[in-house]
């Protein structure tokens, strides 16, 4: 599949991401020094800011030669359908998920598995054949996230 994105748009968005990364990095300098953990709370935002900047620079370098040769597609026949009701429903389900965690109704693991399974089911056009794969993916992603946050970042999840 050929990329038909305007290179000028890629450059502008990449510059915006570099500026955003610089702001994140600047404000992460004010985070306190670590007392007990090895990396401290500033390591994650600093690392992500550097990674976003480097990836944005790569996009800029790759987009510059394409500026003169870019020709927009005139006949687009995309099979993408707009589903604004689904977007609203996913937003509402996300708010419910946050509320369940905030009020302590369920812990992160069961709430995360239910949340991801529900979203996955809705986004696959409610296809019952995919439910086992969706649930398996939800379990793996939730367990992995729980492990990373609790064991690597030392952040207690509900």
Write the layout of secondary structure elements.
Layout: H1 7-28, H2 43-63, H3 84-102, H4 108-123, H5 131-152
Helix pairs in contact: 1-2, 3-4, 4-5
What does the model show?
The chain has 158 residues and is mainly α. Helix content is 63%, strand content 0%. The protein contains five helices and no strands. The radius of gyration is 21 Å and the shape is flat. The N and C termini lie far apart (42 Å).
Biggest pleated-sheet summary: none
Strand proportion:
under 5%
The oligomerization state is single chain
Helix content: 55-70%
Number of domains: 2
Q: Can you give the mean pLDDT? A: 88
The count of DSSP E runs of length 2 or more, i.e. the number of strands, is 0
Could you give the distance between the termini?
A: 42 Å
Q: Order of SSEs, N→C?
A: HHHHH
As residue ranges, the low-confidence spans are none
Roughly how many Å is the radius of gyration? 21 Å
Brief sketch in words of this structure:
The protein is mostly helical. It contains five helices and no strands.
List key phrases describing it.
5 helices; mainly alpha; 158 residues
